[in-house]
Specification:
By secondary structure, the protein is an alpha/beta fold. The chain has 2 domains: 134 residues, Aspartate/ornithine carbamoyltransferase (Rossmann fold, 3-Layer(aba) Sandwich); 157 residues, Rossmann fold (3-Layer(aba) Sandwich), CATH 3.40.50.1370. Helices cover 36% and strands 15% of the residues. It has 10 helices and 9 strands. The model has no long low-confidence stretch (mean pLDDT 96). The structure holds phosphoric acid mono(formamide)ester (CP). Phosphoric acid mono(formamide)ester binds next to helix 2.
Length: 304
C-alpha cells in the first residue's frame, strides 16, 4: 500500500508512466470509464479548494468510482477535537483511497501513517502540493514537449506557495534546468528548499525582484498568488499582494513559445487580458490536473 505525500517519492520513470497514462486517458477515455467500478475516493478537505477537490472527484467519477467526503473542517468531527490520525483510521473503513488537504504541514503524512488505504497529499499548509505538480508536469510535457533544458521563472509568493516548492522538487531532477526565482524580498524561497533541493542537486538559480528583467530568457513563467491565509499580519499582505501583475505590455519581450502557467486561483497577478494570449496555459493546466489525478488513482490502487 502506497501513498503520495511528496512529489519526490515518485521516480522519474513513475512520472513518465503517469504522464503516458494521462495522455492515453485523454485519447481513449472510454477505456478507463469502469476501471474504478466499486471503488470509493474520500476527499477530506480541511481547507478551501475548487480545483483540487473537484478534479479529484471528477477523476474518480470518470473512472467509474464513487466519492464521499467533506469540504470544510467545521462539518467533520475534527471540529469536536478528533485527531487527523483517528480520522484517517476511520475513513479507511469507508473508502479505498483518501485525498486530504490540511492547513497544517505534515498532516497528510500523519494520516498516511495511520490509514490502511493510500493517502494523497492534496496540499499541506505552505509545504507541498504534489498533485498540482503532476498537473504542472503534464502541462509542461504537452506544451514544451520535454522536461529537460528549460529556464523556469517562478514569480510571486515563493515563501508560502506550496505549489512552487513541489514543482522545484520535481523539475530539479531533470537535466539542464535553470530557475529564476522572482519575488519580493519578504517572500523569497525558503532556505530549506535552496539547501535540500537546489544546492543538493547542483541546480542553477538566480533570485531577483525584477519580473520584466527576467522575461526574455524564460521558457516557462509560473505565476503564483500571494497566499493571504498564511500571513500573520494583514498589513504585510496588503503591502505585498500586488507586487507582480502580469499584463500584455510586460510580455512584449517574452519568447513566442513561452508557457504562462499558474496553479490558480488567480487574484490580481495575471490580467484577464492575458487569458486570450496563446501562451496562457493556466486553464488547460487545471484540466490536466484531472487527467493526472485519474492516472494517480489508478497507480495507487494498483489498477492496470
Ligand atoms: N491549485 C489549487 O490547489 O487550487 P484549489 O485551491 O482551488 O484546489
Amino acid at each position: 500500500m502506497r501513498s503520495l505525500i511528496d512529489i519526490k517519492e515518485l521516480s522519474l520513470e513513475e512520472i513518465d508512466s503517469l504522464v503516458n497514462c494521462a495522455l492515453d486517458i485523454i485519447e481513449n477515455p472510454a477505456k478507463y470509464s469502469e476501471k474504478c467500478k466499486g471503488k470509493k475516493l474520500a476527499t477530506l478537505f480541511f481547507e478551501p479548494s475548487t480545483r483540487t477537490r473537484l478534479s479529484f472527484e471528477a477523476a474518480m467519477y470518470e473512472l467509474g468510482g464513487n466519492v464521499l467526503g467533506f469540504s470544510e473542517a467545521s462539518s467533520s468531527s475534527s471540529a469536536k477535537g478528533e485527531s487527523v490520525a483517528d480520522t484517517a483510521r476511520m475513513i479507511s473503513c469507508y473508502a479505498d483511497i483518501i485525498a486530504m488537504r490540511h492547513p497544517k504541514e505534515g498532516a497528510p503524512l500523519v494520516a498516511a501513517m495511520n490509514a490502511t488505504i493510500p493517502v494523497v497529499n492534496a496540499g499541506d499548509g505552505g509545504h507541498n502540493h504534489p498533485t498540482q505538480t503532476l498537473a504542472d508536469l503534464l502541462t509542461i510535457k504537452r506544451k514544451k514537449g520535454r522536461f529537460d533544458n528549460l529556464t523556469i521563472g517562478l514569480c510571486g509568493d515563493l515563501k508560502f506557495g506550496r505549489t512552487v516548492h513541489s514543482l522545484i522538487g520535481a523539475m530539479s531532477r531533470y537535466k539542464n534546468i535553470k530557475f529564476v526565482l522572482i519575488s519580493p524580498v519578504e517572500l523569497k524561497i525558503p532556505d530549506y528548499v535552496k539547501t535540500e533541493v537546489l544546492d543538493k542537486n547542483g541546480i542553477e538559480y538566480v533570485e531577483t525582484t525584477d519580473l520584466q528583467g527576467a522575461m526574455a530568457e524564460l521558457d516557462v513563467l509560473y505565476m503564483t498568488r500571494v497566499q493571504k491565509e498564511r500571513f500573520f499580519n494583514e498589513e504585510d499582505y496588503l503591502r505585498l499582494k500586488d507586487s507582480y501583475i502580469l499584463d500584455l505590455p510586460k510580455l512584449q519581450n517574452a519568447k513566442s513559445d513561452l508557457s504562462i502557467m499558474h496553479p490558480l486561483p488567480r487574484v490580481n497577478e495575471i490580467s484577464v487580458k492575458v487569458d486570450t494570449d496563446p501562451r496562457a496555459h493556466y486553464f488547460e493546466q487545471a484540466l490536466n490536473g484531472k487527467y493526472m489525478r485519474m492516472a494517480l488513482i489508478l497507480m495507487l490502487l494498483g489498477i492496470k
